[in-house]
Amino acid sequence: EPTVRTELMEQIPPIAIFLQESRPKFPTAFFEYLMPIVVRYLTDVNNQVRKAGQEALLILLEQDLVSQSDIENKVCPILLDLSAPDSDDEYKVEAVNIICKMASMLSRTTVEHMLLPRFCELCSDGKLFQVRKICAANFGDICNAVGQEATERLLIPKFFELCSDSVWGMRKACAECFMAVSYTTSPEVRRSKLSPLFISLISDTCRWVRQAAFQSLGPFISTFANPSSAGLYIREDGTLSIRPSMQDVNSNPCQPSNNITLISSSTN
């Protein structure tokens, strides 16, 4: 029964955490028994079971419970199969979504070598606009996961494609994540390539795209600032923040030292 498999999936993360805490007693139980179940359920015939499996996988990755070898030899191959050009549409959309969500939890080398080539292919998927939309919405996270060199060499050309996509929702999603993409690039690429691209979005024929671009204008401009003089920086959660100056801190010793969040780069 699918409901039984779904309930089982929901119990996997707490069991895995227990086994991790009791590793001397159960050194291989998770890798031998639980991880194969999670991987198998990513391809289950029932979409609710697959969804539960995907959520369980993300929790396991977030808790750093999955070994690097299992990620590279078991998880990534399944996701690459599910996101292949000839894969079923529903499976492909789900695989793209999970690839984008797990990118920030994996090592840069794993993302760049195993997942980035497929992500670039999916950005140009002419069959399913839903796939391109997911890629566009998560573009900033992928850029952050792979770093400046891979972003400028492989991702920026794909970003240009998505920014000129015939579906306005794609262009809107690009406008919303523009700051995150810009922050990952060099000042020269930011000035010579991304600035003209942003102007095209802010002049788009669709008012929803223009509105999203105007909302991203301030955050995009902030990426041109020198962090050492402006005090602006991007936190790990993707928010633009400002460090209080030493003068302000000294003048008010009761002032909390927490950073002040100004603008969120989240597409939501």
TrEMBL record:
HEAT repeat windows: 115-154
GO cellular component, as recorded: cytoplasm
Pfam families, alphabetized: HEAT
Membrane-spanning residues: none
One MF annotation (Gene Ontology) recorded for this entry: protein phosphatase regulator activity
InterPro entries, per database record: ARM-like (IPR011989), ARM-type_fold (IPR016024), HEAT (IPR000357), HEAT_type_2 (IPR021133), PP2A_Regulatory_Subunit_A (IPR051023)
Keywords from the UniProt entry: Repeat
Protein's UniProt name: PP4R1 phosphatase
